[in-house]
Design brief:
The structure holds three protein chains of three kinds. By secondary structure, chain A is an alpha+beta fold. Helices cover 32% and strands 15% of the residues of chain A. In chain A, a hairpin with a 2-residue loop joins strand 3 and strand 4. Chain A starts with 11 loop residues before the first strand and ends with a helix. The relative contact order of chain A is 0.15. The N terminus of chain A is likely disordered. In chain C, helix 15 links the parallel strand 18 and strand 19. Classes of the chains: A alpha+beta, B alpha+beta, C alpha+beta.
Chain lengths: 170, 291, 791
């Protein structure tokens, strides 16, 4: 647990709920949340594309809000709930956003995809009626080098329709 | 791009924060939202021996109204401001400017106090603070002081904060009834730091002439710039296109911005003028609608 | 769209086989690979552009707890053999080509900001970076070589002491009747046109893991590449391990765009370190390393004299071309070689009669030039920009000038100056269809109306041809060379699945989907029952270049098509024996072979495999029971890819910001195996072009400092800068009886820069703006307009 005012240089114990499971670990205090997820927990779906908060590939949900996991220390997530791209599907059933991305040919190499999926989930949970301009604004902090973005935007709009018309749950 | 070693402190109260700052002083960096500090750490451009994480101090994260002023705790996050009906009602310019900061995931973590204390002169909030004559409550174990926004920003990434001081809250004076607002920033891409930008507020008096005007600029100097000469030139005038044009020229002509990758000094001065005129035009439009 | 049972897969928008694993976070990119006992590397990189390494002290770094080793250039010289880049493809034989041999780390000099000087290997990347801070180097600063003028100034120091100067390549060429073209010309139009340095920037940077098995003498090398066998082949002589003892493994690759058809100096250093330490060593570059040292491209320029008729027909040209190749030659494609493509790619679909070029490439203290999505793209840019220059000069409409210059299929000339036939070229059809879609004449009216409101709209058009793979050239053998034949293995498994082993190495192109579509149709099995394997050099067919040059559409699809047909024949003849029927009376559908009209006499394909393997006695003695097919495909009759792009923009003349209002593509890639994938390639390519024109520049200061080392300085397009695209396909002219799929990888990126810059000039022409460069950021546009003084 985070010490109350006491200093720590390394080896701090933290407990984080990740994808619904409580995970306890001891981490060097300088470890980013992204490195903690990838290297300590083996959740390599969260990708590092720039490590300075521009590309959005490392986007995860922390207490429901989309954040850059490269710009947060693991110790800062102590006591929080984190959802990564691995935490969306229910068994073999993909999450509606994942389904919609698949149906829309949303991506090519897929490296940026987890960040887009998480940003889209955050947007649609707050605003499933988001129109194209809103979607584009909400995704403007995620870089993709392959797709030209159009099919990603279409995927998010399609996921919104799944919520509105088919009662899909995000 | 991995952060260098540091000692990590996660105080739970403001008193603990102040004690740590008092003890550690210049060896410590305060970690607020982390959206500027953590990249600097990853690039090893910042190498503090101590990091004081103020994210677990609940008393810094409140939005209040006090004596007609809007009071924002330093750790109020940008998204919190965006979603706040109180801010929308009490300070429409602030509410309107925050969505221009970075992107959603940046605003999830980024804080009002962090943006001001980081003092990036191309960022939106320092300019908003200047335009609105915000007051900054600064505290240390030595006591409190209130610093006017005018005196807070000293240079690039440099503020009036002493090493042992913590920015505690920002007080935004009451919004003039019926005032309109505008923001325009020239950015290469949506969400980028501004190449040049301006915020404006305008209130119209009897007969539709300008009774109050505020203009400040960002991205044009090493501090946010309040364009007082332009404000004076606007007072008493009708907000016609020519009047706004002339005021924009008054605001921009004295500027000598630095050249950089995104534009020469002359270019930035030119778009600063465009930004002022567009921000003023929006402010005038909104003021007319309110009238 | 998803339910294709009974339908043909080829031509359908079949959902990608790759996507479920990627969408659920189970892709396996290089940084996701973890090996037991693995160490982590970090490179110390030069912070100065040009200097002599006087000394390097790594003692403090070696002593840091967690550090296992530090390698310097001196260590590299002891542990490896320097490579002469380009040797594999014969570049060392090209007259005028200078190819200094280099090690994985700098030995004597540093030659660009980002040049690797030392490799720290530690228990974690964090510790490795800590150790970098402890290395002391002493560098004697040398005068930086930044511009063409610097590089061609004999008074300035050469980057490589063993070379007399900084000329990396110099050559001349002449095609067709140049003098005749100029003699017949009504006028000569001149222009000096340049392209700025920019770079591929895949979202996953470079990265490798070396793992040395000392007992077996075998190196297993995991890497993010477009061409696994290339890595094996080029590493071998440098690390002193036979190619046959190197196994390269590569999983999901987060983009390449030509960059990852390179074996990097860092790869060599990582392999050397792993071998020396006998422990796996991982290096995954970070974004700042990537931008500075990952590879840059395109810095090229041409001084052009064009011989033109009074009607605006380009008859011929004389070009003086230059390319800034940066610090080191890339292996196997040294940047200097691409300067020739400015001339050879210029003709495209035009009817020019002669072309003469002098070509000069120079070394400079900038990042190494790598191939980037159509490394000949500047040739296309020059042509399509020049057509607009001519149009403006003669006061003709750019569309009309193109009608006059582009070839008409079946009319002379029937071949390019290089001898490649204009067979099946549909440029004119694409041009007319595009003009109709955008209502070109209607745009002119809208443009005039907008101008009255002070709004500046512009339209630009450009076309291209891409040899992907190009038609067969009479008298020339196909195959061989850099982009040789394509080999594939296809076989049946007992569970009824069809396994395809491809030499392709997809990094976003969806080959696991497209190849499976072709196989499913040819064999009569379900798409889901085809498994496409790649990425392990122990099992994949050799290819120097696996995925690159838009080759997969024709070459890989063609190879699996023919292999599947052969496998089908084998299945039919074995089933004919078992059913005691004629093969001609059998059919395969839904993974079952049966007698036509008699479904009771049938056998699932998996059962056929079992019978062949377990009960061969059911077949006559001596029956050929092979159900594993290997086929080599040479491209068949091939054909051109091509098309026309039209871009509409609006320029805010107060800020210089350009908004892309509309983007229309009419293209011919033959039969699109999966239209959704084809369209994705086009959109992605055009988006990179939007970046190149409006946002992206690998900027250097006069001192050779790199100014674009973060994503806040090197600006990629985002959702808010890119429009929706309108993509149309024209009817293609098939050249091959079986394989009419053509590549689309480069198309968008090679033609779009011209369409966009042409549109911007069109918007601003009345203000006197004449565009002679590809990069048009807002500040530059206001300089061209005259609003602010030029820097």
């Amino acid at each position: 647990m985070t010490s109350q005012g006491g200093a720590t240089t390394s080896g701090q114990a933290i407990a984080v709920e990740v994808n619904g499971t409580e995970r306890a670990a001891t981490v060097d205090v300088r470890t980013t949340l992204a490195d903690f997820l990838r290297e300590h927990l083996g959740l390599t779906g969260t990708h590092l594309g720039c490590e300075h908060g521009v590309c959005g590939a490392c986007t995860v949900l922390v207490d429901g809000e989309p954040v850059r996991s490269c710009l947060m220390l693991a110790v800062q997530a102590d006591g929080s709930s984190v959802v990564t791209v691995e935490g969306l599907a229910e068994g073999n059933a993909m999450h509606p956003v994942q389904e919609a991305f698949w149906e829309s040919f949303a991506f090519q190499c897929g490296f940026c995809t987890p960040g887009f999926v998480m940003s889209a989930v955050a947007l649609l949970r707050e605003n499933p009626d988001a129109d194209e301009a809103t979607v584009r604004e909400a995704l403007s902090g995620n870089l993709c080098r392959c797709s030209g973005y159009q099919t990603i935007v279409e995927g998010v709009l399609a996921a919104g329709r799944k919520v509105r018309e088919e009662g899909a749950v995000l | 791009m991995k952060t260098p070693r540091f000692e990590y402190h996660a105080p739970r109260t403001l008193d603990e924060v102040l004690n740590l700052l008092g003890d550690l002083g210049e060896e410590a960096k305060v970690l607020a939202g982390g959206q500027s500090l953590v990249p600097l750490l990853a690039m090893r451009l910042a190498r503090p021996e101590h990091v004081i994480d103020v994210n677990r101090v609940p008393e810094l994260a409140r939005i209040d109204e006090r004596d007609g002023a809007l009071v924002l705790g330093a750790m109020v996050r940008h998204r919190q401001v965006e979603r706040s009906p109180v801010v929308a009602a009490r300070s429409p310019l602030l509410a309107g400017a925050v969505p221009f900061i970075g992107h959603v995931a940046i605003r999830s973590r980024g804080t009002i106090g962090g943006s001001l204390a980081h003092a990036d002169a191309s960022a939106e909030l320092p300019a908003v603070a200047r335009a609105l004559d915000a007051e900054l409550l600064v505290r240390s174990t030595r006591g409190d002081r209130v610093v006017a926004a005018e005196s807070f920003f000293l240079g690039h990434f440099t503020t009036a904060l002493e090493d042992d001081e913590c920015l505690v809250e920002v007080r935004v004076p009451a919004w003039p009834t019926g005032a309109g607002w505008g923001i325009y920033e020239m950015v290469r891409r949506h969400g980028d730091f501004a190449v040049a930008g301006a915020v404006a507020m305008m209130a119209l008096g009897d007969g539709g002439t300008i009774a109050d005007a505020r203009v400040s600029l960002f991205g044009v100097a090493d501090v946010p710039v309040r364009a007082q000469a332009a404000e004076s030139a606007l007072l008493g005038q009708a907000p016609t296109s020519d009047v706004l044009d002339a005021a924009a020229a008054v605001a921009a002509d004295p500027l000598r911005p630095a050249s950089d990758l995104h534009g020469s000094s002359a270019y930035r001065r030119h778009v600063a003028r465009v930004a002022v005129r567009r921000a003023l035009a929006d402010a005038a439009e909104r003021a007319k609608e309110a009238a | 769209m998803t339910d294709l049972i009974g339908a043909r897969n080829v031509g359908a928008r079949v959902k990608r086989a790759e996507d479920p694993r990627i969408l659920t976070g189970r892709g396996r990119y290089i940084d996701d690979v973890v090996l037991p006992g693995m160490l982590h590397g970090a490179f110390l990189r030069s912070t100065v552009a040009h200097g002599r390494l006087r000394s390097i002290d790594v003692s403090a770094a070696r002593e840091l707890p967690g550090v296992v080793a530090v390698f310097t250039g001196e260590d590299m010289a002891a542990l490896s053999t320097p490579a002469q880049a380009g040797q594999t493809i014969g570049m060392t034989q090209v007259p005028g080509m200078k190819l200094p041999a280099v090690y994985g780390l700098a030995t004597d000099k540093v030659r660009f900001v980002g040049d690797p000087i030392a490799l720290v290997v530690a228990e974690s990347r964090y510790v490795a970076e800590d150790a970098l801070d402890l290395i002391d180097i002493d560098v004697e600063m040398l005068e930086p070589i930044v511009t063409y003028a610097d590089a061609l100034d004999p008074a300035k120091p050469p980057l490589f002491d063993e070379l007399a100067d900084n000329v990396a390549y110099r050559g001349e060429m002449a095609l067709g009747d140049v003098d005749g073209a100029f003699a017949r010309a009504a006028r000569v139009v001149t222009a000096s046109i340049s392209v700025h340095r920019h770079q591929p920037v895949p979202m996953e940077g470079r990265g490798s893991i070396g793992s040395w098995d000392a007992a077996e003498g075998k190196m297993t090398f995991y890497t993010s590449t477009q061409s696994p066998h290339m890595v094996r082949q080029l590493l071998a002589p440098q690390i002193g391990v036979p190619m046959e003892q190197i196994r390269v493994l590569s999983g999901d690759v987060g983009g390449g765009f030509g960059l990852k058809n390179t074996v990097f100096r860092e790869d060599v250093a990582v392999a050397v370190a792993a071998k020396a330490l006998e422990r796996p060593v991982k290096w995954v570059e970070d974004r700042m390393e990537h931008l500075a040292a990952g590879g840059q491209a395109r810095e090229e320029m041409a001084d052009i004299e064009a011989a033109v008729t009074a009607d605006g027909v380009l008859l011929g040209l004389r070009m003086d071309n230059k390319l800034n190749a940066g610090a080191y030659p890339s292996d196997p494609f040294p940047g200097a070689m691409f300067v020739n493509s400015l001339a050879t790619a210029f003709q495209g679909p035009t009817r020019i009669e002669g072309l003469a070029a002098t070509s000069t490439s120079v070394f400079s203290n900038k990042g190494t030039y790598v191939s980037y999505r159509g490394p000949w793209a500047t040739g296309d840019f020059l042509r399509e920009r020049m057509l607009d220059v001519v149009a403006r000069e003669l006061d003709l409409d750019p569309l009309e000038v193109r009608r006059r210059n582009y070839v008409v299929r079946g009319e002379p000339p029937l071949a390019m100056l290089t001898g490649q036939p204009f067979a099946g070229v549909t440029t004119r059809e694409c041009l007319e269809q595009a003009a109709a879609i955008v209502d070109w004449d209607g745009f002119r009216r809208r443009q005039a109306e907008a101008r009255r409101d002070g709004r500046y709209l512009g339209i630009g058009v450009a076309s291209y041809l891409e040899a992907a793979p190009g038609p067969r050239v009479p008298g020339q053998l196909r195959g061989g060379g850099i982009l040789g034949d394509e080999t594939t293995h296809v076989w049946l498994e007992r569970d009824g699945k069809v396994v395809v082993v491809t030499q392709q190495h997809p990094h976003g192109q969806g080959h696991q989907t497209t190849l499976a579509q072709v196989v499913a149709d040819e064999l009569g099995v379900a798409f889901e029952d085809v498994e496409v394997r790649y990425g392990d050099t122990d099992v994949t067919p050799y290819a120097l270049v696996a995925t690159g040059g838009s080759r997969a559409a024709t070459m890989a699809n063609g190879a699996v098509l023919h292999a599947s047909r052969e496998l089908r024949q084998r299945v039919l003849s074995l089933a004919a024996e078992l059913f005691e029927a004629s093969a001609a009376d059998l059919e395969i559908s839904d993974g079952t072979v049966a007698v036509k009209g008699s479904p009771a006499t049938s056998m699932p394909l998996g059962e056929l495999v079992r019978v062949v393997e377990e009960e061969p006695g059911r077949l006559p003695a001596g029956t050929d029971t092979e159900l594993k097919v290997t086929r080599v495909f040479d491209g068949g009759e091939g054909g051109w890819s091509g098309g026309t792009h039209v871009c509409e923009v609006e320029v805010d003349v107060e800020t210089g910001l350009v908004h892309v209002d509309r983007y229309v593509v009419v293209e011919d890639c033959g039969v699109p195996v999966n239209p959704a994938i084809v369209e994705g390639q086009i959109r992605g390519g055009v988006t990179q072009a939007i970046g190149a024109v409006l946002l992206e520049r690998s900027a250097y200061g006069d001192d050779g400092q790199f100014l674009a080392s973060t994503f806040m300085d090197y600006l990629l397009p985002t959702t808010t800068e890119v429009p929706n695209f309108e993509i149309h396909h024209v009817d293609t002219v098939p050249l091959d009886p079986d394989v009419n799929f053509r590549g689309v990888g480069e198309g968008g990126m090679i033609v779009a820069p011209a369409a966009i810059t042409n549109a911007i000039e069109d918007a601003l022409a009345t203000l006197g703006v004449r565009v002679r460069e590809q990069h048009l950021p807002p500040a530059r546009l206001l300089e061209l307009i005259g609003t602010v003084p030029a820097e």
